[in-house]
Specification:
Radius of gyration: 20 Å
Strand order of the largest sheet: 3-2-1-4-7
CATH class of the largest domain: Alpha Beta
Structural class: alpha/beta
Bound molecules: zinc ion
Length: 322
Amino acid sequence: MPAPFAIGLDIGGTSVVGAVVAADGRIVSRRSIPSRSQQGIADGLRRLEALARTLLDQAQVSVNDIAGVGIGSSGPIDAETGRIHNPFTLPGWDGIPVVDHFRETLGVPSCLIGDCQIGALGEHWNGAGRGARTMVYVTVGTGIGGGVIANGRLYRGLGDSNEVGHHVIDLDGPECYCGARGCWEMLAAGPAIAKMAASEAPHNSLLLTLADGQREQISARLLTEAAALGDPFSLRLVDRVGTYLGVGVANLINIFGPDAVILGGGVMLGWDSFAPSLLRTVNSRGKMVRLDQVRIAPSELGLNAGVTGAARAIWLHNAGEL
Ligand SMILES: [Zn+2]
């Protein structure tokens, strides 16, 4: 019988979130620590192990009752060797052997996949994507990432990454660090939204007033707040960003033919602001698929999608279904 609990870890550039998750998807204990990867591998392994042990203590769950430790990390990662190789947002942890470390110190199975893939597994298992046969999960935050469930199973490409944020929306758009121009995340991720808002906000706009007149204080979150209060500039920009989001979602629908597209990440906490123009754009481009059969919805698990899916990953791994 599968173990009744699992540990899920969601490793990002700023923090590591961990949880003990029950077999029904319930989060029993949850805690986050700063990543501080620049302190090096030995320090990182020690703190990750301490996090796992603290989570078990808080949940009053014995290590004998867990299926193992499922880990999702900001990539690049190497799922085969269970090591993270991400000099971009996790400098100092290049080659950190997270999977081997948990196998050796806790004596339980462990596996490593991409951070957007755990989000996809979480939403598909116990969130807005429940029951979908094929589902595309998109997370919109500092960047835009994705994970795909194809015919009920996690789709795993080279390097375990679905870089949906780097599919091109505008050939003449802003230059991207990946080498292309006009990538989706250069037009619709949090920093891109903040940059457009800061450079274009009229001096008499409510948005600028909410930012105390300081353009560098403007964020995607503040933009949706100003739009919700009826600020004309913010409403126009939110409409434009929703259009960019909708173009990308329409492309993914045409490519994958999913029955669900679930959008998560910090920017999508402003779903109500972006949804009208996003859905309008998708509907105007959806002649090739049965759009009435595609559920487009915000994440239900929110910031817990990652840890939930990371825990799910270890159960699937142990069953040979990952
Ligand atoms: Zn790019």
